[in-house]
Amino acid sequence: MNPTTYLLTAFFLFSATVFAGKPNVIVVLVDDMGYSDLGSFGGEVKTPHLDRLAANGLRFTQNYNSARCCPSRASLMTGLYSHQAGIANFTGKDRTEELGPAYLGRLNNNCVTLAEVLKTAGYDTYGVGKWHVGEELEPTTRGFDEYYGFIKGHSAPQWEQSYYHRYPASRTPELTYEDDQFFATEVFNDYAIEFLNQAQQNDNLYFLYFAHSAPHFPLHAPAETRDSYLDIYRRGWDVLREERYERQKASGLATDTWEFTERSLVPIEEDNNIANGYSGKQNPAWDELPADRQEDLAYRMTVFAAMVEHIDRGIGRIIDLLEESGELDNTLILFTSDNGACYEWGPFGFDEHSRKGLTHLHTGEALKNVGAPGTYHSVGSAWSCLSNTPLRMYKHYNHEGGNCSSFLAHWPKGISQPNRWERTPIHLFDVMSTLCDVAHADYPETFNGENIFPQEGTSLVPLFNGESLPERTLNFDHFEASAIRKGKWKLLKGNVRYPNKDWELYDMEKDRCETNDLVQEHPELVTALEQEWREWAVRVKVHPYYEDAK
User: Fold this and answer.
1) pLDDT at residue 335 tops 50
2) 548 — pLDDT class (breaks 50, 70, 90)
3) Do the beta carbons of residue 112 and residue 455 sit within 8 Å?
4) Distance in angstroms (rounded) separating the CA atoms of residues 133 and 211
5) pTM above 0.85?
6) For 283-322, how does the pLDDT look when each residue is reduced to its tens digit (9 = 90+)?
C-alpha cells in the first residue's frame, strides 16, 4: 500500500470511528411544568416513560434556568445568558435604543443556535413545537433543516391548527388533520416521530429540538384524560403537597437539608381582582374554600396534569421508535422545563385573557367544558405551589421555585453509574457546551461574518462520567428579580411584585428550600456578592446597570 493510500484509508477509518461514537441528540423542553410534577421528582401525574429515562439516567436536582419562557429558550438555544443573545426579559419590540443591546427582543447575530453548531458537525437538524425567540426569525433561518410548530407569541390554543405551520414554508406538510382531530401536543408528538423517521431514512446523525408548549396556558386537554385525574385533585393541594414531599424523601431527592415550606405568597397587584383578592397574601388553604370553588379548581388542575401526561405519551413513542431501530443506547436525550410552575395571577387562575381580572367560577355542566376547544384557563398560584413542591415562589422569580427545574439526562452508552441524583448546580446554557463536547463540534468565534460571544456554559460530560465540575458562579436577572449563586451561597431579591425589596441570603447546602434568610448575619458577604452580581450585570448589559457604568 503506497503512503497516500495508507493515509486516506487511515483517515476514513478514523472518521468512521468518530462518527460511530457520536450520539444522536434529542433535547426536550416543556413549558411551565413545576419542579415536582414528574413522577421521578415526586409527582402523581402519570409519567412512566419519563420516569424510565430518569431511572436509567441522571436526575439533576439543581438545574437553573432564566425564570421565564423566552429567556430560558434563548439560554438553552445559544449557550449564553439570555441578555447576551438579545432577549434580556422577553421577546417583542426592539427596545435597544431605550434600554441597551440586551433588549433586542429576539435572537441577535452575535449568538449561534444549537442547530447551527451541530450542522457544522454533520448533524441533520429538526425542530418541533414552540419557538419564542423572535417571531421575525423562522427556525430554518437559524440552523434547522425542518421545523413544525408556532413561532408567534408565547402560547397558542392547543385545539386550533391555524396557529401551527411547517417550515420552511415551501414544505408541504407531511401530516394533515381534520379540525376536530387536532390537538397540538399530540400533533407535536406525531411530528417528532415523523422527523425521526426522516432522519433514520437519511442514515445520518440527527438533532431533534422538541419544545412542547404544554402545560403552559391556555389549559387544553382531551376530556377523557382530564377526567382520569378528578378524584386525585379533588383532594386539594395541601394533602397532595405533603404526599409529594414524602415521596421526595423516600426517593432520596429531598435530604435533611430540605424543609417542607408553607404555601407561597401571591405576588402584589395594584388591581386585586387580577390576584383573585389575594394580592400580597399567602395562597389559601384548600379546606378554607367553598365546595364549588374547589370543584372548579380541581378541573383546572386535571387539565394541567393531562397535558403533562400527553407529553409523556409522546416520549414513550420516541423510546419505542429508538428501541426498534437500535438507536436508543447511543441517543443522548435531555429533558427539562423552561422555568418553574406559573402562578399567573392568583390562586383561582384566570379565564379568557391574561391580566384582565377575569376568573369564572365553573359549576354544573360548565365544568365539563373546562379545557375544551374555545376555552381559555390558567391553573393559578396555589396549584403551582403543588407543582413546585417544596420550593418557594414561581416562574418570574429567581427563588428556587422559579428558576430551578427538574432535568433528566439519558444516554446508556455515555453515562456511567446511571439511576442517581446529581446535585451539582448546572444551567440551561450548559447544554450548548455539552452538545459541542459529545458531537465533536467546534463552537465558533465568528459566524456569518459576525463575532460570536464566548459560550458561558460548561460541558456536563464529566458529570456523566461520575466526575465533578469546578465551582463556578451563576447570575440571574429577570425584570428586576435578581440572584447570584456562588458555591453554597445564593443572594436574591424579588421584583416589584415581591413584598421584600431587599436582598435575601441563603446557604443552599444547609437550606435547599430558602427558608432561613441570613442577610443580617453576613453583611460583608452580601456586599461582596452584590458587587459581583453588579459586575456581571454590566458585562451582559442589564438595564440600568450597563448605562450607569458608562
Assistant:
1) yes
2) confident
3) no
4) 12
5) yes
6) 999 999 999 999 999 999 999 999 999 999 999 999 999 9
What does each C-alpha distance from 442 to 77, 176, 337, 436, 458 come to in angstroms?
Answer: 15, 38, 27, 6, 14
Q: Does position 11 have pLDDT exceeding 90, yes or no?
A: no
Q: How many CB atoms lie within 10 A of CB 332?
A: 25
Strand order through the sheet with 489-493: 473-478, 481-486, 489-493, 504-507
**Contact by Cβ (8 Å): 481, 495:** yes
The DSSP letter of residue 110 is: T
Mean pLDDT of 393-405: 98
Rounded to 5 degrees, φ, ψ at 119 are -60, -35
Strand 24-30 vs strand 124-130: parallel, antiparallel, or unpaired? unpaired
The answer to whether 110 and 84 have CB atoms below 8 angstroms apart is yes
Q: What is the pLDDT of residues 51-65, one digit of tens each?
A: 999 999 999 999 999
Q: How far apart are CA 435 and CA 445, in angstroms?
A: 17
* Dihedrals phi, psi of 466, to nearest 5 degrees: 80, 15
Rounded CA gap, 1 and 10, in Å? Answer: 12
- Contact in structure between 129 and 188 (CB atoms under 8 Å): yes
**pLDDT score recorded for residue 400:** 98
Q: Are strands 489-493 and 504-507 parallel, antiparallel or unpaired?
A: antiparallel
Q: Which residue has the cell 410534577?
A: 37
Query: What are the residue ranges spanned by the domains of the chain?
Result: 23-548
Q: Residues 300, 215: contact at Cβ < 8 Å? A: no
Architecture per CATH, 23-548: 3-Layer(aba) Sandwich (3.40)
Instruction: Please give the pLDDT value at position 338.
Output: 98
Do 281 and 266 meet the contact criterion of CB atoms below 8 Å apart? yes
Maximal C-alpha separation, the chain:
88
Specify the residue for cell string 468512521: 16
Give the separation between CA 128 and CA 206, rounded to whole angstroms.
Answer: 14
Cα–Cα distance measured from residue 138 to residue 450, given in angstroms and rounded to the nearest whole number? 19
List the end-to-end C-alpha distance of the chain, in Å, as a whole number: 66
| Residue located via cell numbers 437538524 | 125
- Confidence category of residue 21, pLDDT binned at 50, 70, 90: confident
